[in-house]
Write a structure and sequence with these properties.
The chain is α+β, with helices and mostly antiparallel strands. It folds into two domains: 40-241, Helix Hairpins (Orthogonal Bundle); 331-451, endopeptidase domain like (from Nostoc punctiforme) (endopeptidase fold (from Nostoc punctiforme), Alpha-Beta Complex), CATH 3.90.1720. The protein contains nine helices and eight strands. It has helices at residues 2-15, 30-119, 124-132, 136-142, 151-224, 228-256, 331-342, 361-371, 380-386; strands spanning 300-301, 304-305, 388-390, 400-404, 413-421, 424-427, 436-439, 449-451. Strand 4 (400-404) and strand 5 (413-421) form a beta hairpin. Helix 1 crosses helix 5 (151-224), helix 2 runs antiparallel to helix 3 and helix 7 crosses helix 8 (361-371).
């Protein structure tokens, strides 16, 4: 690498007219010329290779962040499954205890009847059988005098038998439910451990990539006779342009899918999604409207979020929604959900968090909509299944945006955010990144947005 860099510097110095003092005035041999030419070729190849490697490092960092979001969603799903299993277990236990109480009540009634028989001069054998019996068969086995028991006593025996059968069955179900709850809880803990390990691995990978990136930028600065800062800005711009191209293509694909048709059953959008340009710090830069002017919504810069300004954009033309899911919330409730989410700005991302001190992505959206009076499912995948599907030209504040590793497969959804208008979203993005407002991201979105 050093020989290639030296060759580039030599050629650069000659091209700029720099006078070089030569110790030996002897003209270079053909071999010297070929060596110099090869050095220039090697240097050019090294520069190109460095730029390719820088692009690879950016992609690797993106992949690491995606992995963290995916395992985070897996933990949220496991946690939801665990909560559901524990609820089933608690219900089964309560039913079992209720059945036990009914069986005991049936036994007490039978004992009262037995005492009444005794006071009336009934058989002591019948009395003993009834008082100590565990069920109908036991009564029949212990005493041959059951035929002398009144019809009321016979009914009480039958009720005890039924109550004991129910109690036994529900007790077994409660035990099974408790075991399933324990298994689900263990699975949730495993998923959390996996998520935390993935986060640690991602941090190590990003740190290593940053170190390698700095080394490559130093090489490029020497080869081009610039500074490391100039090369850093150049690479940041290249990264931004690559992201912008990807975003533009994804946005065009999503909006092209919105075919004008009869108005949807829900209220048309009150704002039009706008183009966003990715920033160089892992967030996205402020959105721009159709005229290319910056949107008036809030932005995220260096982790500090500015709330969006109030504006009234032109309504978008309605189009037919996709089938599946239902919408129970009004436009006013959508605004209320946004208002609730905005009060959470700056709170930390918490694995499985539903507040009040921290949230994960679906915890933020479900809590915000619940505050607005609409209950939605806990995980992002279940939320997508539940909500009404709408095309992106219908977006209004409060609607949900979903991202997936395979946009044809809802089971691969790993993130959800809330649209707030002006081409912006509010989200709990990932670990170590607080709740924020940022520009709409199109790449990786599901074919439809959702309206709770």
């Amino acid at each position: 690498m050093s020989g290639a860099v030296a060759a580039v510097l030599l050629v650069a110095g000659t091209a700029t007219g720099t006078t070089v003092a030569l110790a030996d005035p002897t003209p270079p041999s053909q071999q010297d010329v070929e060596d110099a030419q090869q050095a220039v070729t090697d240097a050019t190849t090294s520069v190109a290779g460095a730029e390719v490697r820088l692009a690879e490092l950016t992609a690797a960092n993106d992949a690491a962040e995606l992995k963290v979001q995916q395992v985070g969603e897996a933990y949220t799903q496991a946690l939801a499954d665990s909560d559901a299993a524990q609820a089933v277990s608690a219900d089964a236990t309560a039913r079992s205890q209720e059945a036990d109480a009914k069986a005991e009540e049936a036994r007490r009634q039978l004992a009262a009847i037995a005492r009444q028989i005794a006071r009336s001069g009934g058989s002591a054998d019948a009395l003993q059988s009834l008082l100590s019996a565990d069920g109908f068969e036991d009564v029949a086995r212990r005493s041959g005098t059951l035929d002398r028991v009144s019809g009321k006593a016979d009914q009480a025996v039958q009720e005890l038998r039924a109550a004991q059968l129910v109690a036994t069955t529900l007790s077994a179900r409660a035990a099974d439910a408790a075991e399933e709850a324990a298994t689900a809880k263990a699975a949730a803990q495993t998923a959390l451990d996996t998520a935390q390990q993935a986060q640690a691995d991602a941090e190590d990978q990003v740190a290593a990539a940053a170190s390698e990136r700095d080394q490559l930028l130093t090489v490029l600065a020497a080869a081009r006779q610039t500074s490391v800062e100039v090369e850093r800005q150049r690479q940041d711009q290249l990264d931004a342009e690559r992201r912008a191209r990807t975003e533009a293509a994804a946005q065009a694909a999503r909006l092209a899918a919105a075919t004008p048709a009869a108005p949807a059953t829900s209220t048309p959008a009150t704002s039009t999604p706008t183009t966003s340009t990715p920033a160089t710090d892992g967030t996205t830069a402020p959105a721009t409207g159709g005229s290319g002017t910056p949107a008036t919504g809030g932005t995220t810069t260096g982790g500090t979020t500015t709330p969006p300004a109030t504006s009234t954009p032109e309504p978008a033309a309605p189009s037919a929604p996709a089938t599946g899911g239902t919408s129970r919330g009004s436009a006013a409730q959508g605004q209320a959900a946004v208002a609730s989410a905005m009060t959470k700005l700056g709170l930390p991302y918490v694995w499985g968090g539903v507040g009040p001190t921290g949230y994960d992505c679906s915890g933020l959206t479900s809590t915000s909509w619940r505050t607005a009076g609409v209950s939605i499912n806990r995980t992002s995948r279940d939320q997508y299944t539940q909500v009404q599907k709408i095309s992106y030209d219908q977006l209004r504040p409060g609607d949900l945006i979903f991202w997936a590793s395979n946009t044809a497969d809802p089971s691969s959804i790993y993130h959800v955010a809330m649209y707030i208008g002006n081409g912006q979203i509010i989200e709990a993005p990932t670990y170590n990144v607080p709740v924020r407002v940022t520009s709409m991201r199109w790449s990786g979105t599901m074919p439809y947005a959702g309206r709770p």
